[in-house]
Amino acid sequence: PFDVLVVGGGPAGAAAAIYAARKGIRTGVAAERFGGQVLDTMAIENFISVPHTEGPKLAAALEQHVREYDVDVMNLQRATGLVPAREPGGLVEVTLENGATLKSKTVILSTGARWRQMGVPGEDQYRNKGVAYCPHCDGPLFKGKRVAVIGGGNSGVEAAIDLAGIVAHVTLVEFDDKLRADEVLQRKLRSLSNVDIVLSGQTTEVLGDGQKVTGLSYKDRVGGDLHRVELEGVFVQIGLLPNTEWLKGTLELSPRGEIVIDDRGATSLPGVFAAGDATTVPYKQIVIAMGAGSTAALGAFDHLIRHSAP
Ligand code: FAD
Prior knowledge:
By secondary structure, the protein is α/β, with parallel strands linked by helices. It folds into two domains: 2-114 and 240-307, FAD/NAD(P)-binding domain, CATH 3.50.50.60; 117-236, 3-Layer(bba) Sandwich (FAD/NAD(P)-binding domain). The chain is built from six helices and 19 strands. The strands form five sheets. Strands 1, 2, 5, 6, 7, 8 and 19 form a seven-stranded mixed β-sheet that branches. A hairpin with an 8-residue loop joins strand 6 (79-83) and strand 7. The protein is elongated, with a radius of gyration of 21 Å. The structure holds flavin-adenine dinucleotide. Flavin-adenine dinucleotide is lined by residues 7-13, 30-34, 36-38, 40-41, 44, 46, 78-79, 110-113, 115, 133-134, 137, 243, 246, 276-278, 284-287, 289.
């Protein structure tokens, strides 16, 4: 069995694996797609000490760094179940889609998350070419330009306020007939002179010239007419879904499905830790996921030295 088995190979999982392996303990990583969301990213400009990199390059560097150590990397492996230890200090089991079972004294869950998509024409085609999901990451790329934010919940309204300070103009489009964000955020949003708010707006298409985004069309759900806005960017803020469906019923999840962790990365199950976008950690970012992965690995190591037979 492993001492530490990491499930997920994004920034959180890679950091956890390196921190665990550096303790000289048996470490494995099972990942559906090593690199995680980073693989889907183009420019990364907030990975501190690296002013500019690209997703696939960072993903390759993550894997290369992990492979510097004696880590059993199991790529293209999807976990489908978690079986808690039968007795205190016992082995935790992770079942894989291929039918195999991996056993470990501790497990670190770092299966990340995915942005909910609008599912309209143009969204996929112009992803990273004007269609963005992360204002902290991509906001500065739209300095002085016009953007839309899709979604009027807390994350959409926060994004619109954030972007309004960087870009020339923001159009916020909400499907419902009212914003769902906290009142204090709504008040702040309404005070901004370069923001238009569209309610009852159903996005129908992201428009482009073949290379990049040039506009957005939406339907007025009350009057039924179609509108077109000329702009350069669309930030989709309709939800971040944690990849934790396979864990339902085995450990504590938040109402949003995030794995509930404490400040050492421990979950509600003894010996099971978690890190990164799949958890309740506030703010989902690469550097934050890496820090959290390191925390979870040190938490797991601490657990091992307290609970393993000498
Ligand atoms: P992820 O990167 O999501 O990795 C999850 C891992 O778990 C993957 O290996 C996945 O295959 C695996 N996995 C999932 N389910 C299972 C399963 N059942 N069994 C086995 N493995 C599984 N952040 C920044 O800091 N700067 C940026 O510029 C930036 N730009 C972004 C641009 C885009 C388009 C996107 C989508 C995100 C961006 N982010 C950016 C956010 C950043 O990518 C995430 O915060 C970060 O990758 C989270 O790391 P993670 O390890 O928690 O999860």
